[in-house]
Write the structure tokens for this entry.
Amino acid sequence: MSAKAIREQTGKELLGRFVSHGIVSKFAVVTENTKWDALTVEHPWLLTEKLVVKPDQLIKRRGKLGLIKVNATLGEVKTWLSTRLGANVTVGKATGKLNNFIIEPFVPHTADEEFYVAIFAHRHGDTILFHHEGGVDIGDVDAKAVKYDVPVFGSISVDDIKTKLVHLAPANKQDNLANFIASLFEVYTNLYFTYLEINPLVVTKDKIFILDLAAKLDATADFLCKAKWGEIDFPPPFGREAMPEEAYIADLDAKSGASLKLTILNRKGRIWTMVAGGGASVIYSDTICDLGGAEELANYGEYSGAPSEQQTYEYAKTLLNLMTSEDKHPKGKVLLIGGGIANFTNVAATFKGIVRALHQFAGKLREHNVSIFVRRAGPNYQEGLRIMREEGSRLGVPIHVFGPETHMTAIVGMALGTRSVPAEPEKMETTANFLLDASGKGLKVPNGRQQEDSLPEAAKPAAADVQPAAASAAEPSGGGQAEAGYRPIFTNKSKALIWGMQSRAVQSMLDFDYCCRRSEPSVSAMVYPFSGDHKQKFYWGHKEILIPLYKNLEDGIRKHPEADIMISFASLRSAYDSTMDVLKFPQIRTIAIIAEGIPEAKTRELIKTADEKGVTIIGPATVGGVKPGCFKIGNTGGMLDNILSSKLYRPGR
């Protein structure tokens, strides 16, 4: 998730620096490595003021749990910490180690000086909550608090806050509160907070104090806010310690264009997963839990986005080291190397990286009685599965290997013993080679029943293979009359512009078009601002064709009025600006945004603008989409063999 919780000390430090309506922000941090002499030199107020000390580890309701010491001297704070710092405590069902505390000056105040304020993001904007009675006994905030919704692109004035939010607060504090909340909301927006809660907010005669704070930042906005944020620490939830292996994979992920994620759930668990794809990782984890393996699930994560052989090796090596570093399990351990059908990840290359790691840990895998179950498909999957099978026979480790003929999660049942392991998986006989005739006229319909039956199943023609050429673009592909105002997003006449130098994706779209017997390619042109105008060579069957590439977006749109779809491969840093540029042209009615990692606030702005202009947005962070027999977005659907075996080249009925 892009919204990540931050420590209270981090939130208070950010607000102390950027909230213009002055707040008193003074605190010290204590860990197991803290030297008290050095700390008091850095924060001399510790020696002279009464203090409050509490753990800063994303623990809720610390007061009710007895985890706060108030109105104490430094000596009393040290004594209180001596029995808690480094100790294990249980909060709810989570047990963790207390290793990070925050010390602040004690603020004497009365109950009528306590207030509650929170801001949170949602699809349509942000909501500000305010209640004139704050503190630990506030109760049901949703029922009590006054709410003010700020829409996307909206703003809020001090006068609005005074009349619509803080009007129930004491009259002599309303001006101070209104100015503070206005400044707080500005900082919340500019620093890409997604959640910010202050309870209580103490307002005395001339000062404002944030006594307790909980906050989340949009981690994907790092490239926008790095200079303001500084080095941000996103701590794990209480009860789950940050592990060096997770940090190592996170560092690999940051340095790679691929996606590499790892969360360790239970180091002693017997069920380990190495799953390709974020969606697949959720499906595999859900299936493991459904089959009763939740308590033994050791990790959660993914490798996707076409990682290199070396990157996959580093990921697999880290995972295998974790798997074999704990005690043996009496039932042995299982490793699920799973995934769906890759769009563009080279399965053979990634499996070579995995095999290198398996070879390195072969002895430990045998020692821990590890069984490996593999299910994968996508580009070069046959070679990848072959490599994996051969490695299993050499290692002496049971490796059960399956391809797209097997349901994606079937290996979970096999690994957990709820279904039998087939001796020999059924082979799929699909190939796209028969499509590539030299005439350039598209897919040929075989003449004669005998010839048809000799073809692979995916190649056999169907009555619905081709939509009538005269069909109206406004008519739904399923036939019948279009509803009033209905406009199909894709038809077999749809034309697209491609933003970015994505030759492989364009060729994949052209191959799909050719299989669908489209009369013309679905790609009109490409746009790439870092190259001069020229033409790129592609294949339409065996025939070579040229597709223009433009440096300027306006040129591409003006010269190709038939194109009403934009497929954007812009990076996460440029996707917002380039999409907003595209939205200036009413010709474009659909935009697919492939990039992931666009901040949520920016995504809301894109959606809002697109809705106002009647433009359909697909994404961000989409792999694309397919309308069978009509149109395919980029690399969606993977290899052409998969398109054929899934019969996606045929329109629906």
